[in-house]
Design a protein that fits this description.
about 350 residues, two-stranded antiparallel sheet, single chain, ten-stranded mixed β-sheet, 2 domains, Spore Coat Polysaccharide Biosynthesis Protein SpsA, Chain A, alpha/beta, about 45% helix
Length: about 350
């Protein structure tokens, strides 16, 4: 029985995949490695066959996205009896003790369903993510993104969400709350899973000793309009599936304003196709998301007050336009609220 599996989603990642797999094969804690190839058309499959015969490859005929790809890897991991399942992006390389430190952190906390890593940019000096947070504005954001790596990020702590780019998941938790929502395809699917885990009473833990180095945006940046489409499609779903009703009056109006700004900027850039596609797909699948909400909220084990206590009551650091607008409103009204 394999206790730990590492799942690597790949789509046309030939240039970075070798570094990722080399780092996994030299881990201090051995694990079964599964690469999910999402219909690559580059030399990824040839590279895997020639240079990494010890790695299990599940080749898909089409691109199922991050969510669909890793779900197939998770299902395979569970099939062979894995207790813990790690995910890592194909454009990331892990330090030698990365997996050992993730597993140790999870074993030290029986309520932890997810343990996430310190993800650094390729230069090793700048934070990409130390987990994720969710804000009262309905906007998630990676913790620490863009900041210099320092002792500020060296403490174990409970956080809101784990980055799907480098996290460990407890199989027992996944069986309870479900896998990634494949309708998300990419972007915020990891926040959605973390939100569902929190609602079901599981904790998310940050393990600062578990370090990976990430080439930011190496895959998704290849597709024009990709980020815009999935952002506009997924943000409303994230809210409607997971935010408890008592918090809706706080979150929904703010997200509506923020969403309008994101959509407006997309249209200014001429991204009409991604915008209208997001509206269409989001609307068509709305009944399905509401059904999912009923199931998620029906199984909720924590109070709305608890969820309110673990979200950030402010704008994400990168929401510069909204912050400026909010500050002007404060100046006019003499109020200072998030």
């Amino acid at each position: 029985m394999q206790k730990v599996c590492v799942v690597v989603p790949n789509w046309n990642g030939e240039k970075s995949l070798a570094d990722c797999l080399d780092s996994l094969l030299h881990q201090s804690l051995p694990a079964h490695i599964i690469v999910i190839d999402n219909g690559s058309t580059d030399g990824s499959l040839s590279l895997l066959a020639k240079s990494f015969p010890q790695v299990e490859v599940l080749a898909q005929k089409k691109n199922y996205g991050f969510a669909g790809g890793v779900n197939r890897g998770i299902e395979r991991s569970m099939q062979i009896g894995s207790k813990f399942i790690a995910l890592i992006n194909n454009d990331a390389a892990a330090d030698k003790d990365w997996l050992k430190d993730l597993v140790q952190a999870m074993q030290n906390n029986s309520t932890a369903g997810i343990v996430t890593s310190k993800i650094l940019s390729g230069d090793g000096q700048t934070i990409d993510s130390t987990g994720d947070f969710y804000t009262i504005w309905g906007l998630p954001h990676p913790r620490g993104r863009g900041e210099k790596s320092s002792s500020k990020f060296d403490n174990d702590t409970a956080i809101f969400g784990g980055s799907g780019g480098a996290s460990l998941y407890r199989a027992k938790m996944l069986r309870q709350v479900g896998l990634f929502d494949e309708d998300f395809f990419a972007y915020y699917e990891d926040i959605d899973l973390s939100f569902r885990a929190q609602l079901a009473g599981w904790k998310v833990v940050y393990a600062p000793k578990a370090v990976v180095h990430h080439q930011i945006g190496a895959t998704s940046s290849k597709i024009s309009g990709f980020t815009t489409y999935h952002t506009l499609k997924n943000l409303p779903w994230l809210l409607w599936k997971n935010v408890p009703w008592p918090l809706m009056p706080k979150v929904l109006p703010r997200l509506t304003l923020a969403y309008s700004g994101i959509a407006g900027r997309a249209l200014q850039r001429g991204q009409f196709g991604p915008f209208f596609k997001a509206l269409f797909v989001g609307t068509v699948l709305w009944p399905k998301k509401m059904f999912q909400r009923h199931k998620i909220q029906g199984g909720r084990k924590v109070s709305p007050a608890y969820i309110n206590s673990i979200i950030i009551h402010d704008l994400p650091p990168n929401a510069h336009a909204l912050r400026s607008l909010r500050n002007k409103w404060w100046a006019l009204t003499g109020k200072a609220k998030s």
